[in-house]
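PROTOCOL LOG
Step 1. Enter all chains and additional molecules of the complex.
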Amino acid sequence: MSRLAAAEDLEGLRASLAAERERVGTTIVVCGGPGCQAAGCRAVIEALEEELDKEGLAESVAVRVTGCHGFCEQGPVMVIEPGNVFYCRVKPEDVGEIISSTIRDGEVIERLLYTDPASGERVRTESEIPFYRLQERTLLALNRQIDSSSMTDYIAVGGYSALAKVLRDCDPEAVIREITASGLRGRGGGGFPTGRKWASCRAAPGDERYVICNADEGDPGAYMDRSILEGNPHLVLEGMLIGAWAIGAAQGYIYVRNEYPLAVEHARRAVEQAREVGLLGDNVLGSGLCFDVEVARGGGAFVCGESTALMASLEGKVGEPRPKDVHTVEEGLWNKPTALNNVETWANVPLIMQNGAAWFAGKGTKGSKGTKIFALTGRVKNTGLVEVAMGTSLREIVFDIGGGGSDGAAIKAVQTGGPSGGCLPVEKFDLPVDFDTLSEAGSMVGSGGMVVMDERTCMVDVARYFLAFLQDESCGKCVPCRVGIDRMLEIVTDITEGRGRVEQLDLLEELGETVRETSLCALGKTAPNPVLSTLRYFREEYMAHIVEGRCPAGVCKALVEYVIDEERCTGCGACLRACPREAIRGESKQPHTIDAERCVRCGICLSECKYEAIVVK
Amino acid sequence: MSDQSMAAILEGRTSQPQQLIEALHDVQQLSGYIPQEAMTTLSQELGVPLIEVYRVASFYKAFSLTPRGRHVMTVCMGTACHVRGAARVAEQASAQLGVEPGGTTSDGQFTLECVNCLGACALGPVVVLDGVYHDQVTPRKLGRMIESVRRAESEDRLHV
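Step 2. Run joint prediction.
Step 3. Record the structure below.
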């Protein structure tokens, strides 16, 4: 492809690409996101290509493998354009029929359609499915339109036109004014106003500046950034280019988790593609902007999500944070002014510049504008990625979009904000989800993880889980975080193992306050949140463990016993054969029993029993 | 690891200390771990003191200082997987393989890893075996995964 020397070249290319897209009639869109990959979409794609070849349709029917569509729970998902027929849970053996019926004859295959659980009726398109219909999909909707490895697809649907517009019409200050007016706040967890960050960075003295894309998405239970970078890497690059123009940077970095090999691959490919046509490099689109991007792989350290630790890691060093008395916008990477934003923040920038600040500010609440992507996971029916306007209530997200609890269990809480966030009880579900409201309630929006918990989730165990995570991930540089988290974990472990004492709860709170006040970086400062929020809302669960020696959810091993319900047991022997400890006895077709002495509560019998006869007490 | 492949890794990185982590990634990818000689070479060629190379290699979870098994089993311990029973899955893996997370079986067949999140949260608990994602894994399902690898390897041995 030839170099795009000016904005007119880009427009010319777009026109021809769009015409080419028009020419191809039918396109089978297959989601290649992480959820659908795990559900086996690769085999479906291979079967599709083979079948189209065999049927002589390879020329007239296109297959587009895209980034995440969001409805991971129903994966692998497929959409057939035009008409947008939506098929879910597609298997390779369905492919032959899809080609012969839907592609050749235009007939819809009923059994592959989604069934609306409320009405029991099958629906044909995404727009009829409550999970999609109730969202406001701005960023995520783009994923479906483009092959995630193709720059030309991105350009065909309007990609890089925001950049061309900015380079033609806006001086850097005007870009910063627009971003400030939009009210965009950082999507990585801090919620800092992006416009203000850019303005300080531009104003900081120095002749070299950097922009960084933080794609080190370490929060467990969050994969929004992965889905954007994998599915639409050029959108992120375009955002960084606009940021570089605004700030005056010549070099940018994408720091991406090594655990996301596909994101690394797609980001690298996007950079190469952009260099090839001159969208990165010297004199971008003839504007005088010189900017290049390098992709760096993270080392698998959670603390590197913190900006100063990330910059140390980019310099090739151990990822330890430093005090922030001098801000990174003044002295960041190699002590030069640096603007760091996360993937979702960068991805919003081209849309704001294209559609205007007012468009973005028209969505959301007073203090939190635009849409936000959440990863809805855990004990909820419709797991997947959800994009809604800021200010949507937890209830709408979990119950209306998420469809409520999985297999009918009562939902108890939702954990937001990852290890830095907290657990909010179902009584708080009418709270609007925005940066300020969730912080006041003792949690945070964070990067957007939302893990739903039900009556089978033990909140003390959840607190212990996060402390164990943070103790493992603390870099060890400052004492409050290194020692404080360790001691808190010790206490909570005592409680989950039946050695807890009531007075330890006050000590936990006191320790939590100290760690929060005195730790060096955000990892330590927010580490007590999961403990403090569960103590605040679920104190009775702590008390049940300590006073009654009982785990109400039946999770904490030291406090539970596995027994077999005689009424329900059919004596099929499935549990007996599966038990690794030979702790289950019984005659065929007679109720079995569990030897409590031998039982290690591994849970295998629980997952094997078809009759729900294994009871955890 | 051959001199040739080390030279390829070092290409364009000589005397660039900031390239240490990227170079370590390449070594890890190629050898499955970071051999001591590789650390010495990187120290000399990039201009980073050996102790700093060791510090970086041991700080980041992506790098292993000991050789890994022929099969790598990664159990996701993320929050979404946790509330769906990942701890039980990990315990089963540990018990069945006879190694702690991070360890390699004495016959070099398996390395067991527990990681904080693989970002496939919608389908937890997730286990990755040799790069292939498996969703909604139960202790029993995991047991069968291990058994099938063992069976395949012993069959291979019979055919050799």
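Step 4. Note key features.
Strands of chain B lie at 71-76, 110-115, 127-129, 132-134.
The helical segments of chain B are 3-10, 20-31, 36-46, 50-59, 79-82, 86-97, 139-159.
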